[in-house]
Amino acid sequence: LRKEEDPFWDPIEKEKCIGKAVLFLQSLTAQLESESNAHIFNKEGVEVGQLNVAVFPVTKDGKELEDDDIKESPEELLGTSAYYEVRILSASGLPKELSNNTFVKFKFFRCSSYTETPRVRGSTANPVFNFRKIFEESVTPAFTDYLENEVLIFEVYGEDLRATK
C-alpha cells in the first residue's frame, strides 16, 4: 500500500508556525519607538525563542524624526499622515528541528495581506533577518485606538526536517 493510498497515513507538514511574538505599540502614540526582544510562544504556550523587533516613527524618507517634528499627544497627529518603520532584526533560540528556511510574517493595522521577511536559507536556531519596511498611515481615531490598545503579532515560521520530501 502506497502512502498516498493509506487512509491512516498523516504526513508531517513541511512549513510550520514555530510560534508567535507580540510587540506593544502604545509608545508610538507619543511618537516614541517600540523595541523588544519579544518572547516567541508556540501554540501550547511554551516559550520557543526570542524575536528582536521594533517599530519606529520615521519621516516619509525613512529618517529619524527631528525633535521639532515630534507631537506631544496623539490628538496632534489626527488628520496627518504618519510613517512607521517595522524592523525584524533577528530571532534566537529557535527549536533546531523547525529552524530551517525561517521567515516572519505580520499584518500592520488594516493591511489585508501579510508582510513577510525573506527566508533565511539553511538551518540555524539564530536567524538574522535585518528586515525593514515603512508603512504610511492616515492618523484617524481608529488608528490611534489601534496603537493604544492593540499589539503587533509576529508569526515565526520554519520548515520541519521530519517532513516528507
From TrEMBL:
InterPro entries: C2_dom (IPR000008), C2_domain_sf (IPR035892). This is Putative Chromosome-associated kinesin KLP1. It comes from Toxoplasma gondii ARI. Pfam families: C2. Residues 64-165 form the C2 domain.
